[in-house]
Design brief:
By secondary structure, the protein is of the alpha+beta class. The protein has one domain (about 5-125). The chain is about 40% helix and about 15% strand. It has a four-stranded mixed sheet with strand order 2-1-3-4, sandwiched between helices. Strand 3 (about 55-60) and strand 4 (about 65) form a beta hairpin. The protein is globular, with a radius of gyration of 14 Å.
């Protein structure tokens, strides 16, 4: 079974987050698609999410998760001690999402937007992008 990580394809922080996941996903559990792609837009519709969703999204076992729930569920499948971060799921969602929303609201200011140049993944990683 695999899961799909949907991310903002214009965001440097989101791109860095995807690269972080790829480097720590030795089992190849995750596939990836930008929110702006045809696959991303199809998944947003299937899960009754707005087309202009401004959040990381995880589709896993037929369910869609956004914001901190998505990020924490991703950590469960990463190599190493990153799995321990999933324990933060016990915190109330409004508290977790307050931190998530603060970072999301400032991500372009802090990390910028992608230009037309991007890293070309290896063939093994490239096949995981939908």
């Amino acid at each position: 079974m695999t899961a799909i990580v949907l991310f903002d394809g214009d965001c440097n922080f989101c791109d860095a987050s995807v690269q972080f996941i790829i480097q720590r996903d030795s089992k190849g559990y995750f596939n990836y698609a930008s929110l702006q792609s045809d696959v991303g837009q199809k998944l947003l519709k299937e899960h009754n999410m707005p087309e202009d969703l401004d959040s990381f999204m995880l589709v896993e076992d037929g369910e869609a998760y956004i914001k901190s729930a998505a990020a924490l569920r991703i950590t469960r499948h990463l190599d190493g001690a990153w799995k321990l971060l999933y324990a933060l799921i016990v915190l109330p969602a409004p508290l977790r999402n307050f931190v998530y929303d603060y970072i999301a609201a400032n991500r372009y200011k802090w990390f910028g937007k992608k230009d037309d140049h991007c890293m070309l993944p290896s063939p093994e990683v490239r096949q995981r992008f939908l």
